[in-house]
Sequence to fold (160 residues):
Amino acid sequence: MLHLAQAWKQHRRLCGFWSGQTAALASGNFCGLCGLTGAPLRSTQCCDRLVCCGADFLDSQGCFNLHREGTMCAHHYHENHDGETWDSCQQCADDFPQEEVVVWRRCNRFNFQEDISETPFTFERSTCHRCGNTIKICVEPVIDTPSGMECGQCATKGSS
Fold:
């Protein structure tokens, strides 16, 4: 039951954040990704939106770094792709060989809510060439071998 109480606390805060009922929203002093108030904020380089950057600028879990390292928006900016926007840039999509990675970078929680497409993406799931299990490339350990992708379990077993 403890996890529900913890989840409710975050849900209540974000619910107020997204419905526009917090003072922080009115003043613009909140992280546009997680809704955190009272933390150091910084504008993203790619889309110039306020996000938290953690207590330490180099904090890898701050929304600034998570957006910079895990979104197509930031990739488009840092690779200096010209012309179109990141969500329609073919060059961005071509930079990642697995379509699952492209979809993940466009739809993960490190993107701003209004940028996430409401159209569901379809793609062929990657599978481990040794055991045949489905691999979630962006969220679990994966090894790319000359024979194909291996899930974390098979990779730790070694070659057979």
About this structure: Residues 15 and 21 are 9 Å apart (CA to CA). The chain has two domains: 26-115, 126-157. The beta strands are 41-43, 50-52, 126-127, 134-135, 142-145, 148-151.
